[in-house]
């Protein structure tokens, strides 16, 4: 059993998920006879708390010493094994990847997505070796694709070195073979149309229509997810792997709280998010960004800084605040995540059961073991048509007000409070124009949300007026 804590000292991942053998306790072991359980010896030399043989990275790498936390308690080999153990535990206990899957890894060039790609490759490589060695070859090897979303049309000033960066990404992906992985470079405007010229105009006008800095940044993040969903849908991928880590989730928890997204917060911080057509998984959820940066440095995993814009608005303030907290106490980010993790997840925060394989059984066992009970008694009636967050049914909404308000009122009703205040224009005439610029996938979601809202209000009216027959007819429709 794992504690899933970024500050754990129990080496709980060692036995079950270690990927390389530990060095033999030969001559070095004699040197560690006087070592304490916390890794120090009588000569003041720090030893790894896991193998009790090698020196910690704090003693051999100055950068690791400055980082503190678990990075300074492990030797390089044990540190890597422990980090991969967190990844593998998340994957296996939540049925993120099964032999029949075809997963798409979102790759931005940063350390988080680079480690996610590396670990997925190692899992695939091991599965391929097992497949080649088996006689019956009953378990297929899951497929892997890599996608980079090109946002140069939105940040033209920062796109001068984009071609070189894409070439470097192609080299990284091609080096992770066999098995071979397909690499996609897709511009954001493709969510509109394969005709880049048409999509370019609509996308630039849509982004320009959002005046709030925080809202514009959030909108770009939502468009990025739509782009990944489109790639996955068109190419037959069954899961999307994101490199989102503990540090990023900790910032998102505070950002969502400040923006008034408390109701939907639980949906965004789980290992699995199946509200999308292609489920999204977060196998690095229990890893700190500092750990991922250190691993890239130790293993010489090349990272690429391309179109990396500083965060702005509320997001920028919260990100800076969390960084300060982490410097003061290295366990703060893990504490924020564990606290938010007590929220009840939604019914879509687990892999759907399709009946074709037993991959979901591990997830079911984990839910029973850790008492994870998704809230199925109160499923969301609809989702925000911009960010796809589950909407909480308002107690004071009336069908007359919704219908009489026209399209403008309908758009506001179909959006969460954060998107209402930070993305949608306040002027009704501007709102109509904004709606015309949305990609089709967002417009379709708005129509679904509007229909769900109508049905929900009618059901409420039927219950209040004691119309059981009318209520049953609505449900039947």
Automatic annotation (TrEMBL):
Pathway(s) per entry: tRNA modification; 5-methoxycarbonylmethyl-2-thiouridine-tRNA biosynthesis
Origin: domain of life: Eukaryota
UniProt keyword list: Cytoplasm, tRNA processing
Bias kind Basic and acidic residues: ranges: 350-359
Range of residues in the leader sequence: none
GO cellular component: cytosol
InterPro entries given in the database record: CTU2 (IPR019407), Rossmann-like_a/b/a_fold (IPR014729)
First-listed, main subcellular location of the protein, grouped into a coarse class: cytoplasm
MF GO annotations: nucleotidyltransferase activity; sulfurtransferase activity; tRNA binding
Subcellular localization, as worded in the UniProt entry: Cytoplasm
Gene Ontology annotations of biological process type: protein urmylation; tRNA wobble position uridine thiolation
Entries under Gene3D superfamilies matching the protein: HUPs (3.40.50.620)
Region spans: Disordered: 348-368
UniProt cross-references to PANTHER family, sorted A to Z: CYTOPLASMIC TRNA 2-THIOLATION PROTEIN 2 (PTHR20882:SF14)
Function: Plays a central role in 2-thiolation of mcm(5)S(2)U at tRNA wobble positions of tRNA(Lys), tRNA(Glu) and tRNA(Gln). May act by forming a heterodimer with NCS6/CTU1 that ligates sulfur from thiocarboxylated URM1 onto the uridine of tRNAs at wobble position.
Family of the protein in this entry: Belongs to the CTU2/NCS2 family.
Protein name (database record): Cytoplasmic tRNA 2-thiolation protein 2
């Amino acid at each position: 059993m794992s504690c899933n804590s970024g500050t754990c000292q129990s080496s709980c991942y060692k036995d079950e998920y270690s990927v390389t053998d530990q060095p033999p306790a030969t001559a070095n072991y004699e040197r560690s006879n006087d070592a304490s359980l916390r890794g120090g010896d009588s000569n003041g030399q720090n030893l790894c708390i896991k193998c009790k043989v090698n020196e910690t990275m704090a003693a051999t790498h100055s950068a690791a010493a400055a980082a503190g936390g678990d990075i300074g308690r492990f030797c390089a080999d044990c540190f890597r094994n422990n980090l991969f153990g967190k990844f593998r535990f998340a994957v296996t206990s939540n049925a993120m990847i099964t032999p029949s899957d075809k997963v798409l890894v979102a790759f931005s060039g940063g350390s988080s997505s680079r480690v996610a790609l590396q670990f997925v490759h190692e899992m695939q490589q091991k599965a391929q070796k097992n497949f080649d060695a088996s006689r019956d070859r009953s378990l297929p090897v899951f497929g892997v694709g890599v996608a980079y979303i090109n946002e140069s049309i939105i940040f033209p000033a920062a796109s001068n070195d984009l071609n070189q960066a894409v070439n470097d990404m192609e080299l990284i992906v091609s080096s992770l073979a066999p098995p071979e992985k397909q690499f996609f470079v897709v511009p954001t405007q493709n969510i509109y149309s394969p005709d880049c010229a048409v999509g370019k105009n609509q996308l630039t006008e849509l982004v320009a229509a959002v005046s709030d800095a925080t809202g514009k940044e959030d909108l770009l993040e939502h468009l990025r997810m739509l782009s990944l969903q489109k790639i996955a849908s068109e190419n037959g991928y069954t899961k999307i792997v994101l490199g989102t880590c503990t540090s990023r989730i900790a910032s998102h928890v505070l950002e969502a709280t400040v923006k008034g997204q408390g109701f939907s917060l639980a949906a965004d911080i789980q290992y699995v998010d199946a509200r999308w057509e292609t489920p999204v998984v977060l196998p690095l959820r229990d890893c700190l960004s500092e750990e991922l940066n250190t691993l890239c440095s130790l293993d010489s995993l090349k990272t690429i800084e391309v179109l990396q814009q500083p965060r702005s608005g509320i997001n920028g303030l919260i990100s800076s605040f969390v960084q300060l907290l982490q410097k003061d106490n290295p366990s703060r980010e893990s504490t924020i995540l564990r606290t938010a993790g007590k929220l009840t997840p939604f019914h879509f925060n687990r892999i759907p059961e399709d009946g074709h394989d037993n991959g979901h059984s591990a997830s079911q066992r984990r839910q029973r073991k850790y008492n994870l009970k998704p809230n199925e008694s109160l499923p969301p009636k609809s989702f925000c048509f911009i960010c796809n967050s589950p909407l909480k049914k308002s107690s004071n909404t009336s069908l007359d007000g919704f219908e009489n308000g026209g399209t403008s009122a309908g758009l506001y009703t179909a959006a969460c409070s954060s998107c209402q205040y930070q993305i949608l224009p306040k002027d009704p005439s501007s709102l109509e124009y904004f709606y015309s610029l949305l990609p089709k996938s967002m417009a379709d979601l708005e129509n679904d949300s509007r229909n769900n809202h109508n049905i929900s209000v009618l059901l409420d009216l039927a219950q209040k007026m004691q119309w059981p027959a009318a209520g049953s007819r609505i449900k039947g429709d």
